[in-house]
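Risk register update: the risk of archive-format incompatibility is retired. Evidence:
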Amino acid sequence: MSSNSSYHSLLRIGAAVVAVMLVFESGLFSPVTARLADQTENYLANAVGVSVGVAPTELNQMTAALTARERELDERELALSEREIEIGLNDGGSVAGLDSGTFILATILFILLVLIILNYALDYVRSRERLRLAGQNVAV
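Archived output:
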């Protein structure tokens, strides 16, 4: 039970890395880290793209006009949000302070911690079984 296998070390290091990532992404110590994580995710999401073309039809033109209108509304919403941040009405965080990345990292961290606890519990049971068998062999 006192020997540290590479599995034990890997599990502990994985839990520590996920915990550090969770603290960084959640902005627990500094809101700048949360904003940096959000901006990095947005940058990576926008860096990947595909472009295709189709022959123009009436439906395509209406869809293009609707898409242009949605982009215009998104730009107006962004400008309004920036003004709210400037005057202090909005802190610039995600909706209601909830972020899916934080939840995913927290879930992964919880799973790793459960695995660590389960691993040590099973090691303890196995060592007790070995001691019991060793005691029976000595008594015989």
